[in-house]
Here is the input.
Amino acid sequence: MHTHDVVVVGAGLAGMRAAIAAHEAGVDVALVTKVHPVRSHSGAAQGGINAALGNATDDSTDNHTFDTVKGSDYLGDQDAIEILCGDAPGEIIQLEHWGAVFSRHETTGKIAQRPFGGAGFPRTCYAADLTGLVILHTLYTVCVKYDIPCYEEYFVTELIQDDHGGCAGVIAYDMVHGTVEAIGGKAVVLATGGAGRVYAPSTNSHSSTGDGMSLALRAGVPLKDMEFMQFHPTTLSPSGVLVTEGARGEGGILLNKDGDRFMSKYAPNKLELASRDVVSRAEATEIMEGRGIDGSVLLDLRHLGRDKIMERLPQIRELAMAFAGVDPIDAPIPIRPGAHYHMGGVHVDSWGAAPHMPGLFAAGECACVSVHGANRLGGNSLLEAVVFGARTGSAAAGFAQDFNGRGVQATPEHGVAYEAQLRELLERTDGPRQYEIRDELADMMQVKVGVFRTGSELAEAKVKVEELREKFKGVVVDDKGKTFNQSLIHVIETGFLLDLADTMITGAVARTESRGAHSRTDFLERDDENWMKHTLAYLEDDQIRLDYSEVTFTKFEPQVRTY
Amino acid sequence: MPETTFDVFRYQPDTSDEAYRQKYELEHGEEMTLLDAILRLQNEQDGTLAVRYSCRSAICGSCACRADGKTVLACMTQVEDLKEQNGGQPVRVDPIGNFKPIKDLVVDMEPFWSKFKSVKPYLIPDGDPPERERIVSKEAMQKIYNESKCVLCAACYSECNSLAADSDFVGPAAFAWGFRFAADERDGQRKQRAKLYSGEHGIWDCTRCMYCNERCPKGVDPRDAIEKLGGIAFQEGLGMRDAGGRHAKAFLISLRTGGKLNETLLVPLTQPIKAPFDLPFALKMISKGKAPSPIPHKIKRLDEVKRIIKNVKETI
Amino acid sequence: MARKFAYYPGCVAEFSSKELNSTTKALAPLLDIDLLPMPAATCCGAGDVAEAKPNLYLTLNVRILSQAEAMGCDIMTICNVCTLNLRRANKLVKEDPRLLESVNEELVKAGARPYEGTKEVTHLLWYISTEEGLSLLERQGPKGLNGLRVAPYYGCQLLRPSSVMGFEDPDQPQSLERLIVALGGEVADYDAKSRCCGFPILLARENTALKESHVALSQARDAGAECMVTPCPLCHLAMDAYQRKAEAVNGEVYNMPVLHLPQLLGLALGLDNKIMDFKRHMVSVDPVLSVVGGQPALAGRA
Here is the structure.
């Protein structure tokens, strides 16, 4: 059995940033990841990372904070948002010092910044349209430099709890050899990303199955604000592949089938650069009301010209050609809203610590601090991952250093117990297959828990998900082998998705208002009096129980939110 | 609805030591990627079929494999295109070449990762960083843009002819990253990197087969990066250290003195120690009339060439 | 009217593989081409100068292109490496006017002629394997390959990178096959026909290179080839001059005669064997000559 001071689950932006911070704090930290670090979904982020560097125009962290608070539809915790925006410039500069290949300003040679949705000033730093990839690679090179141990292709199946209700490590399944191992730690950081695969289609990779969120949920830790799922306005049809908001930041416009720039109706000031929920709802409305083309609207980049597209948006041009058969230099790209980002996640404080379980931390998309509230601004997710990755890594290191003398509580017996469960699962021969259950779930979520929701459909969704969770108990694993058993992994992932979907639906049913990305056609208005609060979802006795917690205000009073 | 037969490489170490092939039939829509086809086979027909994948949008680099012998990213390859190219035959699917399989299309990438790490793929700046970001011109940053696109998918390793003949060859992607740092203005180790990369199994071992440039799904052009590293090695005065560098030096001397390649110079300069021991071979070559003339040929207007060699500055 | 080309044989064809040069020049009238010499052209620098001194490589190759332009013709090559080098330089300056301008500045400064970017570079193989080329061959009368089984060997740099070369699909090339059949031969097909012969590292990394050439040589042998044909004198050196070394290092016997492309054409069209100078090959070509049979030299045309 291996033990470390800090165990980080997930090696994307948040995970690697946390590990680097922990390493720099002087503790023994290890990464545990089900895909090689550079395969992490952070690499698919395209458009940029926000910071009030003031390189393009004057800007301030206060402005950034306000934009983020407003973008969150006032559900974000303002103290955490102030930290996000305040730490942003320093984090970007740190990334640059580590070698990140940011695009540079024409004349000054400083880090270039472009406009993005919901932002009052151009503050989105970028690397062409490969920003996530560049930052992911930069962090990986630092991990290589520091020689941080990494358990590659190890799938974490359970959190280990000690007898004091604290987190003592993880149980990890070695995917290459098919063995189970307990990895003990004084602190565990969950950084496993989002769960976009709960929907079909989604922009997310196949690996985005919400593992860490479900691990925490099953260990008794509540998940916060799960009903808030961001639908990105520009995804390709039918694949769901992402087209960056940067395309609109560079001047791309949205048109309906009549060639009208419809955003003028929905967001007369910011137009295409309104916040994402506003744009997605606008598109969905246009499509529903018959002004779409084959269930899509059009993103037109032609007026940007070949040079600009080749310089700033080369990757999305390739994606449009490969997945939509369209060259954006010559023709508009058909796009539609697609499930993209999880505002909700493991309930943690502004240090990334989970109050319900000492020793457990979470950062990045799988955590909910909350900095995004009911809707996230583009460019703030990569930012959250590095700012809170760093903070959480430091906090976890500090926790490990202050750890009382009981020592690491995980034992090899924890692994043995899980192994027995696995054997039972593998031996089952009759039963449903995971992909049937998963497909049914994802299709259902798309229709009933999508951009627009209503009480009756949400109630149907709740019935359905409970049915599927029950059905899942008899699921069969096709591959009975030890070596690289993907069938087994898929089954476990589907189980995670089902639990998470239940928290999302339950929260959505209960929240009788429209706020941010949660849009109810039967409760059209935002209801601050009754609903200015976070939803907490617990899994107890196999049922989801909801509770609520307060939103923290510092600087900005809630206002009507228009763009 | 089109139907396709997939002829897939199988290796299932849990049941057998031997690799074998298995055919699958699949009915599918007009637009189906190879990855989606494999995933459907995995779900619907054979849960033991193994393949690495994640993003399905050509950015994570997981799903490189060989389709009809040609290395591609499965998620960006249309099955109908493959059938058009092979005349409607069953589509052969194999793991990437030059690696040992772990299971089916999943290979042991350990040699790839350790070669990557061996080029010190992280920024090593000189001195302390400034308070804000380092100022770098747009042009300077553009110089390493191509190499920054590498997603470490190993497609270039799959068909690398040097790697096939020498399994210790460090390889195209690693050197693309090496160049990315050697040419990064902010890195302070240009000379040391050039030295590190010019050793055994290094940049001079590249056979210039151009498969990597041809196959890279992201347009990185790793061979070009290796070529540029050669240029840096020369600039840093490392040209004479390795036989590969000396080989190039022979060309440069020839150009200056006669304009055409002086083959008399080439062998002894490249391999001064080894060549004299190769006497039987040398004699055989001479007997076949392959000994070049002792009087080097001079082209017309050689003076133009001499001026060009003197004037032209390298800007690597 | 014979089509005029600026003839760029490269360095090896004029020295260690001079049989290639003599054959090509003798072949020209039969192929209706006029190969005009380029006495002031330098070596193309191979991959070596492109690597060590990229700006020098570019300037020298554009100088060669400019000389052809002054002669009013496209360039014809008989070597893979020369073709790639010249075409790559041509593409770079044609696509980037500012680059062409700066290269021309250097040329003019050195007293050479600037390049306007109007010429193309083509290899003899490309010229003769098109529909037009093949019908020209057909008009020449009966072909004397007599069913000779020939393994086509392309090498690398005539095919890849396809963005520079672009004559045919690098993964399914057919030009040599078409020619072999048109000349009365039989194709001995095998997978490794466009794998590297190892020549670029033959001197610096001999062992690795010899393991490379083994792949094509052994596969061609196993496909029943009576000889191999190649459009590149460097590949020829690797496959022919170094064949016995490859046999020793790999523990194999290939016994594979290797022909230059013009020699294959020459055999089919009845060129005098003395001009084709097979005695210069390290691996005897006699087995090929017995299959092809004695064809009288085309008097007055050789």
Observations:
- Chains C and A do not touch (no CB pair under 8 Å).
- The first helix of chain C runs from residue 18 to 27.
